[in-house]
Amino acid sequence: MTHPTSPSQSLLHGRLLAFAAILLAALNLRTAVTSLTPLLDVLGQTFGFGTTMTGVLGMLPTAAFALFGVTTPAVARRLGLERTALLAMSLATVGLLLRSMAGGVGSLLFGSVVALAGMGIGNVVVPPLVKRYFANRVGTMSTLYITVLQIGTMMPALLAVPVAQQAGWRVSLGIWALMSLAAALPWLMLSRARPHPDTISAANDPASAPHGKVWKTPLAWGMTLMFGMTSLMTYSMFTWLPRIVVEAGATPAFGGIMVAIFAACGLLPSLTMPALAVRLRNPFPLVLIGFSAFLIAFAGLLYAPMKAPWLWAVLLGIGPSTFPLALTLINLRTRTPAGSAALSGFMQGVGYAFSCLGPFLFGWLHAVSGGWHLPFGFLVLCAVVLLSASWVACKPQKLEDQW
């Protein structure tokens, strides 16, 4: 004789499944980015492309994150959050497989776009799922989510070149599809348990809709430029750091290790910045830490890349500390869920649109000048914009007051 499952047991099972689903999704949100960059030299030789196409491939992640950051809320309203997460992991799986089977630059680009579309959707849909299933544990789940995201950023960079040397670049690019396929399975189970589409947040309720235009506020532009310049510099380095150290005399495998250290050191700011920001009325001093780290790392990579490469990679990891700070400020600078959703959508959509130009312009300036002085000069200018924008974003204020 079978006993019916009690509501409490069903809820516990749903939360455990959601816990696994969220962390597996987080593990897959950057694999398409850092599994590719250490292999760009190999792929360039295989398919016959140079620095311009390398810049385009480096630009794709932020372009996809910008586009799908804007469109995902509408998809989630139609499909429901769980089904949208399932769509994200399915697209990631298909795109990663297509990319590993590429026969030319066109199919390599197409596979990358499909995979990054899935990861761009995942960026947007996972945070509200954390709030749905773990509303009373948002802080703990956010810490776990960021930690796993960083691990998923670091692993492909470390393994890309060694796996390619042992089994070929196709295997090196394709193995990550197994991980995204594994992440799709719990979302399939959760989407079947929740058959009815629902809203992404209270911001979709007309009664709680924003009462002003976000883009008309200095706060929104300050946070958007803060977020955008951080992402621009970060993705420029993800794309070009291997090439910089290889030209300085390092091996491609060492270039992959540098990207992995860069990604791993970003874990510390991600875990500490939110807690520090909450305690400070004006967290601008925290911005100075990231700004200084970026400048020292840029100078080191330009003038003495192989004198202390580990130090430059560590400082590059500390530089994007303004990324978790910007995400934390979304809630610190708003009073309502509607305001928070509006500010988050504008900041991430427009910010990623700005940042997608970074890897392309960095590579173009290198191709034009034949050296690294112009590209790094461009990044220093972006760091100054970041500092100025952060001054506005960090001031004690609320978005709703500017409406």
UniProtKB/TrEMBL annotation:
A GO term, aspect molecular function: transmembrane transporter activity
- Which Pfam families does UniProt cross-reference here? MFS_1
Domain Major facilitator superfamily (MFS) profile as annotated: residue spans: 14-400
Q: Which UniProt keywords apply?
A: Membrane, Transmembrane, Transmembrane helix
Membrane-crossing segments per the record = 56-76, 85-102, 108-130, 142-161, 167-190, 219-241, 253-272, 284-304, 310-330, 342-366, 372-394
Does the keyword field hold Membrane?
Answer: yes
Q: Which InterPro entries match?
A: MFS, MFS_Cyanate_Porter, MFS_dom, MFS_trans_sf
> What is the name of this protein?
CP family cyanate transporter-like MFS transporter
Its source organism is Stenotrophomonas rhizophila
